Amino acid sequence: MAEGSFWPAMDLLRSEPMQLVQLIIPTESAHRTISYLGDLGLFQFKDLNPEKSPFQRTYAGQIKRCAEMARKLRFFKDQMKKAGLSPSTRNISTDDDLDNLEVKLGELESELMEINANDEKLRHTYSELLEYKLVLQKAGEFFNSAQSTAAAHQREFEAQNGGEGSMDSPLLLEQEMTTDPSKHVKLGFVSGLVPRDKAMAFERILFRATRGNVFLKQSVVENPVIDPGSGEQVEKNVFIVFYSGERAKTKILKICEAYGANRYPFTEDLGKQFQMITEVSGRLAELKTTIDVGKAHQSNLLQRIGFQIEQWTVLVKKEKSVYHTLNMLSIDVTKKCLVAEGWCPVYGTHQIQDTLQRARLDSSSQVGAIFQVLQTKELPPTYFRTNKFTSAYQEIVDAYGVAKYREANPGVFTIVTFPFLFAVMFGDWGHGICLMLATLYLIAMEKKYSTQKLGDILEMTFGGRYVILMMSIFSIYTGFIYNEFFSVPFELFGPSAYSCRDLSCKDAYTSGLVKVRDTYPFGVDPKWHGTRSELPFLNSMKMKMSILLGVAQMNLGIMLSYFNAKFFSNNLNVRYQFVPQMIFLNSLFGYLSLLIIVKWSTGSQADLYHVMIYMFLSPAEDLGDNQLFFGQKYLQMLLLVLALVAVPWMLFPKPFLLKKQHEERLQGQSYTLLDNAEGNLEVESEPPTPHGHEEFEFSEVFVHQLIHTIEFVLGSVSNTASYLRLWALSLAHSELSSVFYDKVLLLAWGFNNTVILIIGIVVFVCATVGVLLIMETLSAFLHALRLHWVEFQNKFYEGDGYKFSPFSFTLLLSEEDEAA
Question: pTM score, two decimals?
Answer without folding.
Answer: 0.78
